[in-house]
Specification:
4-stranded antiparallel beta sheet, Alpha-Beta Plaits, elongated, BofC_C, BofC_C_sf, 8 strands, membrane, transmembrane, transmembrane helix, alpha+beta, single chain, Ubiquitin-like (UB roll)
């Protein structure tokens, strides 16, 4: 039995002990109150009516929500399962999937196991989770090109720029300054689209052409000069 199996076994044993302790304590309290002739309060009746699993789930919510980012977990209604969506947001590209229908207990466990994930409860009742990944999605690896759109903006395209399937616009380029500073073959390659195959190449292209980015103030001046 390895260390992970031992920890899992001890965790299960602790849950059983916690349940037994909670139940015994509750029964003892009821017995004492009954012997003294004291009625149970509404709050006590509600508490006693709840399953021990609800107490366990609440504890998991507290463990999975150490900060304000996971406060939405407390909005999950006990006993109500929800559809859970996962969106992987890459440096370049996104991928979405449905993880399935989960109980509040399972959702809390999922967020606890993945502390870097960010989640929210959608207006329709579904749970939406985002995972940030430093890398390229499969679509971006196979179809990602960086080039210029018709307005001179450095743009990420799905396929070569000539297909005009823009995915994301980064910034506007001072085309005249770029053409005077870079070799003609580099300019031609940019117009045809620079193929992106890994995150290092992606960042390198953005860094290279950021030297020719037009600042917002310069962009406004250029627009004002146009007839």
């Amino acid at each position: 039995m390895n260390i992970f199996q031992i920890k899992k076994h001890l965790k299960k044993r602790w849950r059983r002990w916690r349940r037994a302790i909670w139940t015994a304590s509750a029964l003892a309290l009821i017995a004492v109150m009954a012997w003294m002739g004291l009625p149970l309060s509404d709050q006590m009746e509600k508490l006693m009516a709840r399953e021990p699993m609800a107490i366990e789930t609440l504890g998991m919510w507290q463990e999975a929500a150490p900060d304000a980012d996971n406060e939405w977990l407390s909005e999950l209604e006990e006993g109500k399962s929800r559809i859970v969506h996962l969106t992987k947001i890459y440096t370049c590209g996104e991928e979405s999937s449905v993880l399935g229908i989960m109980t509040p207990n399972e959702i809390a466990e999922l967020m606890k196991d993945h502390p870097t994930w960010k989640g929210r409860l959608g207006a329709g009742g579904d749970v939406w989770i985002e995972e940030r990944i430093d890398g390229l999605s499969e679509d971006c690896k196979t179809q990602g090109y960086i080039g210029l759109d018709k307005d001179g903006n450095l743009t990420l395209f799905d396929g070569p720029p000539k297909k005009e399937k823009a995915v994301r616009t980064f910034f506007q380029i001072d085309v005249e300054m770029m053409e005077s500073a870079l070799p003609a073959e580099v300019i031609q390659q940019l117009r045809q689209g620079i193929r992106i195959q890994d995150v290092e190449e992606y960042n390198s292209v953005l860094s290279t052409f950021s030297d020719f980015a037009i600042e917002p103030s310069e962009r406004v001046m250029q627009q004002e000069e146009q007839p």
